[in-house]
């Protein structure tokens, strides 16, 4: 199958059973020993809109706006689907590119992989207004000067994450050619660091709280404090924006996410409960206090400085241009990229066109369980950056 070919799935067949991410970076399909299973994809309106995770799992708090919005009915009658995807860090763009998902959530580095490989994708809703990424160190071994990582080993959950770390390091004056990376696997790379492997590990906001729940205590160099780069964003096929019906759907869909973001900002504890209702195992592993801590870390990233933004999901073109210039400088992409060519704020105004007073009333009126009612949100906010170097 060539890069520009796609497949559709016959009724009764689950794509997850035969889609694979090939070594060459493309999504391929295995016919499972049968003939006639694969037919050319047909252009049609979204029957069920599929969002695909960059992490290989949905059992995290990162997607709280969706679950909060779904519980509150903010998606209305839209047919939506969430898929975990493979743990390969680039699958979230590959699957969208070939039509096996409709929206991905890549980091800027993985988005640059898509651009470099000619994928016709465009960012339509920038979730991460601040840089969510960080470097974790064993207690007492951390540094504020990332240049000291030259000659050292950084652990990653996926080799694809090097597209995240290289520009982040280079922006801090690090010669990335002098850094060694080890793919320590998902979700074990943090445990590997705690066990004495490597010198640092990539982390991000929200995950810090989840690692505490697993007994992993680290010191952190935090991107939210030291980096001007953007973080993860929602991407779709560029062609979908040229289709009036699909563009109208995207506006409604993103409005649901924006309302979920507003709900989580107004009542983070209720947003956590919405996620925990979906994933009881996550609830038992984290509990109300660490769950709320995780979401508050992410609210800080997703909201950014809202006074300077055009609403939830708004792209700061200058921040993105700085990122694209940096990755071109280090050779992560071979041609310069103009931010306005691959990002759009056209959907931001309609996505934010909702009754904020109603969402606040919904959030304020959400009934909390006893465990969450006892959580002191202001205390957590006051200690949100504990462990930061």
UniProtKB/TrEMBL annotation:
Asked if the record carries the keyword Transferase, the reply is yes
Known catalytic reactions: N(6)-(pyridoxal phosphate)-L-lysyl-[4-amino-5-hydroxymethyl-2-methylpyrimidine phosphate synthase] + L-histidyl-[4-amino-5-hydroxymethyl-2-methylpyrimidine phosphate synthase] + 2 Fe(3+) + 4 H2O = L-lysyl-[4-amino-5-hydroxymethyl-2-methylpyrimidine phosphate synthase] + (2S)-2-amino-5-hydroxy-4-oxopentanoyl-[4-amino-5-hydroxymethyl-2-methylpyrimidine phosphate synthase] + 4-amino-2-methyl-5-(phosphooxymethyl)pyrimidine + 3-oxopropanoate + 2 Fe(2+) + 2 H(+)
Q: Which UniProt keywords apply?
A: Iron, Metal-binding, Pyridoxal phosphate, Thiamine biosynthesis, Transferase
Give the residues annotated as coiled coil.
none
Keyword hit for Transmembrane helix: no
Please name the pathway: Cofactor biosynthesis; thiamine diphosphate biosynthesis
Domain annotation SsuA/THI5-like: ranges: 65-269
The free-text function statement in the UniProt record for this protein reads: Responsible for the formation of the pyrimidine heterocycle in the thiamine biosynthesis pathway. Catalyzes the formation of hydroxymethylpyrimidine phosphate (HMP-P) from histidine and pyridoxal phosphate (PLP). The protein uses PLP and the active site histidine to form HMP-P, generating an inactive enzyme. The enzyme can only undergo a single turnover, which suggests it is a suicide enzyme.
UniProt subunit comment: Homodimer.
What is stated as this protein's family in its record?
Answer: Belongs to the NMT1/THI5 family.
PANTHER family per the UniProt record, alphabetical: 4-AMINO-5-HYDROXYMETHYL-2-METHYLPYRIMIDINE PHOSPHATE SYNTHASE THI11-RELATED
* Protein name in the entry: Thiamine pyrimidine synthase
Organism of origin: Labrys neptuniae
């Amino acid at each position: 199958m060539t890069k520009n070919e796609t497949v559709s799935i016959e009724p009764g067949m689950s794509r997850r059973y035969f889609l694979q991410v090939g070594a060459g970076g493309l999504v391929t399909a295995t016919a499972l020993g049968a003939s006639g299973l694969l037919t050319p994809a047909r252009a049609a309106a979204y029957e069920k809109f599929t969002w695909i995770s960059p992490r290989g799992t949905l059992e995290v708090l990162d997607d709280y706006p969706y679950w909060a919005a779904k519980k509150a009915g903010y998606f209305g009658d839209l047919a939506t689907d969430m898929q975990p995807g493979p743990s390969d860090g680039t699958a979230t763009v590959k699957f969208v590119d070939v039509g096996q998902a409709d929206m991905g959530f890549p980091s800027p580095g993985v988005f640059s992989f898509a651009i470099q490989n000619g994928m016709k994708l465009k960012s339509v809703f920038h979730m991460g207004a601040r840089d969510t990424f960080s470097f974790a160190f064993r207690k007492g071994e951390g540094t504020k000067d990332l240049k000291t990582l030259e000659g050292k080993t950084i652990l990653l959950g996926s080799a694809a994450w090097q597209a995240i770390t290289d520009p982040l390091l280079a922006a801090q004056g690090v010669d990335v050619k002098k850094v060694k990376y080890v793919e320590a696997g998902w979700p074990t790379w943090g445990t590997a660091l705690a066990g004495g492997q490597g010198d640092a590990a990539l982390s991000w906001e929200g995950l810090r709280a989840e690692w505490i729940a697993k007994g992993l205590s680290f010191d952190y160099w935090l991107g939210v404090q030291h980096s001007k780069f953007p973080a993860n964003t929602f991407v779709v096929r560029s062609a979908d924006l040229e289709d009036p019906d699909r563009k109208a759907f995207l506006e409604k869909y993103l409005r649901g996410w924006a309302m979920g973001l507003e709900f989580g900002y107004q009542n983070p504890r209720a947003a956590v409960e919405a996620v925990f209702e979906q994933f009881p195992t996550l609830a038992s592993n984290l509990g109300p206090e660490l769950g709320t801590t995780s979401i508050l870390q992410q609210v800080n990233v997703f909201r950014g400085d809202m006074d300077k933004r055009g609403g939830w999901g708004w792209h700061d073109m200058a921040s993105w241009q700085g990122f694209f210039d940096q990755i071109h400088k280090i050779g992560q992409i071979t041609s310069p990229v103009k931010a306005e060519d691959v990002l759009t704020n056209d959907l931001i105004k309609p996505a934010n066109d909702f009754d904020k007073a109603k969402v606040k009333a919904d959030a304020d009126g959400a009934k909390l369980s006893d465990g969450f009612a006892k959580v002191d949100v202001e205390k957590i906010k006051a200690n949100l950056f504990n462990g930061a170097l």
